[in-house]
Amino acid sequence: MQEAKHEHWSSGWTFLLAAVGSAVGLGNIWRFPYIVAENGGGAFVLIYMAIVVVFGIPLLMSELMIGRNSQKPPLAAMQSFEGSKPQMLWNAVGWSYLLVPMGILTFYSVVAGWTLDYALGMGIGTFNNLPEGGSATMFQDLLASPVKLIFWMTLSIGITVGIVARGLKSGLEKTVKILMPALFIILIILVLYASITGDFARSFAFMFKPDFSKITPELVLMAAGQAFFSLSLGSGAIMVYGSYLTRDISIPKMAVGVAFADTAVALLAGFAIFPIVFAFGVDHSAGPGLVFVTLPIVFNDMGGIGQVFGVLFFLLLAFAAITSTISLLEPMVAQMSQSGRVTRARVAIYCGAVLWSVGVFVALSNNILQDFHPLGFLPLFEGKTIADTIEFLSANLFMLLNGLLVSVFVGWSVKRSVTLEEMGLGDSVLFKVWFLLVRYIVPLGVGFIFYDVVL
Ligand code: PHE
Q1: Disulfide check for 384: which of 103, 182, 388, 395 has CB 3.0–4.6 Å away?
Q2: Which pLDDT does position 3 carry in this prediction?
Q3: Cα 20 to ligand 1 centroid, rounded to whole Å
Q4: Domain coordinates of the chain in residue numbers?
């Protein structure tokens, strides 16, 4: 292991809180439930969990290992890692690990902005006494308003920059120590409420009774994309968090912990949402609008208590989003401030400014620029707005490609003695299984999925 001059996590627990904070986000609470609903429930959940175990955990371990062993942010890590050839390729992967999270942040900040708008709106009663169709109109109004979208996006980037600027211990650690327990408490309250008052039995069957006829290549593809995004893989977040780990912490244990908690939260989010959605007989396959259109109707129908749960729910989403956005900004900030020539705070502000400038176009692609398709001349990008294009490039293509290349890197290029030592499992069966997965199964599986996305 190389000399590190930066801060480290105070303990394994704080690392776990932060890494779970990164993993648990809009992907779990907003995206997972509606994707499950759109893809036929149980079958999707089953495939998703299999992918988390077979691809997710081995890759989490690989990324944590690269971070911890090098004690450096992604680009520097890939540049300096022992045994790495051809170096040009690994440098490119390092760059990709810095740029993908920035790309994700541009649209993630906009959606994080929606959650802030909704939390406030619920609080001040904007959603009370909604007329028929009112919640759909309100969501459309938000998307149609450049001023609102840009305002909330600015706030979410501002909060993220403010936290990251303060550094690991007084910024990131402090934030996750407050927000993560709050998030778990709110989630448990919502699940309890939903399962007591809602249709729990139907939700359970919906999520866990697989209809095997629904399993198609597209479903597998969706599940893989969702798993990568939800586990924060291929995006620098896990790698950079790994670089703040000390040697006494077990990487395999941490990886299993992150994967378990992330999946548990996604399932719990389903149990907070589906029982009430089923009980109120509203449409559960409303797509991205499930949380922003359908839930406000339900909260509205509940009367006074609904408003309380509404505020809690959107606060939960906002907290989950913030503990993810900080992990998305950290790789670039760590990389650019590592030489010590420019302060971390200044780098964070510069990055925030760049993000904001791109974010404005992302926000506008919901309204004024909705007919602008920047790469529309390419078949793969046909009909995609600026937001869709950035999302597809960062969250689909390059995330998967990064994961693929990192598994090749760890499985084929890094010295076995290094991996053996970092995993701390000895030359055991567990180690061998992990190595086999990283060396063959992950590259082949992800390669196949990637091929499917591109062609
Ligand atoms: N995992 C986060 C979520 O589920 C998103 C994310 C992706 C965060 C990549 C960091 C890196 O919402």
Answers
A1: 388
A2: 54
A3: 10
A4: 12-454
